[in-house]
Design a protein that fits this description.
It is a single chain. Strands 3-5-6-7-4 form a 5-stranded antiparallel β-sheet, covered by helices on one side. A two-stranded antiparallel ribbon has the order 1-2. It is elongated. The protein has one domain (2-172): Thiol Ester Dehydrase, Chain A. It contains 3 helices and 7 strands, in the order E-E-H-H-E-H-E-E-E-E. Strand 5 and strand 6 form a beta hairpin. The two termini are 30 Å apart. It has helices at residues 19-27, 53-59, 86-105; strands at residues 2-4, 10-12, 69-71, 109-119, 128-138, 142-153, 159-172. By secondary structure, it is an alpha+beta fold.
Length: 186
């Protein structure tokens, strides 16, 4: 599934493929109890050893989960020094975190807090940027998602670096825009 994002970016969302993927997609939180804190995190885990895991492990990307979002920045996304704006990365991390939170909440969510954002290295035009999100905490109406961002540099001699880490909190809302309880999976 693809949709056009801001400034003409194409955002590709992965649809669940097999029966186990559909089950994992439907559960979202994977049985994560309300009020608990996960260590390790569980929101975006792969259900089994499917597709590209060995390649991801060898390349430096998380091998046990799929990215919530993967995108390449364009020339309009950089500052005068050629580095991608931090605000662009924050926007994409918010989208990736919302994808994870919506699956967990089984409905609409809104961003209520950016708890932490750490920029470790710059991102450049041409980097393939992967955003991995996992549920870190579930409250009564809120879901906190930990987002890790990796840049894949130089396609001819691939280098993978973690460029950003974030913790973003979302609140589940009903059709009228009011906070609603997040149903804990059994």
């Amino acid at each position: 599934m693809a949709r056009s994002g801001r400034r003409g970016h194409t955002i590709r969302l992965r649809e669940p493929s097999g029966a186990r993927d559909r089950e994992s997609f439907a559960l979202g939180c994977g049985g994560f109890p309300r009020g608990a804190v996960a260590t390790p995190l569980t929101g975006g885990r792969r259900p089994d050893n499917q597709g590209g895991e060995a390649m991801q492990a060898a390349s430096g990307l998380p091998a046990d989960r799929d990215p919530a979002l993967r995108v390449t920045p364009l020339p309009a996304d950089v500052n005068i020094h050629g580095d991608v704006f931090g605000g662009w990365i924050m926007s994409m991390a918010d989208i990736a975190g919302a994808i994870v939170a919506e699956r967990c909440a089984r409905g609409r969510v809104v961003t209520v807090a950016v708890n932490e954002f750490v920029f470790r290295q710059p991102v450049a035009i041409g980097d393939l940027v992967s955003f991995y999100g996992e549920v870190a905490r579930i409250g009564t109406t809120s879901i906190t998602v930990a987002v890790e961002v990796f840049a894949q540099r130089r396609p001819e001699d691939v280098e993978i670096v973690k460029v950003t880490e974030a913790r973003i909190t979302y609140v589940a809302i009903d059709r009228q825009g009011r906070p609603r309880a997040v149903e804990a999976d059994s």
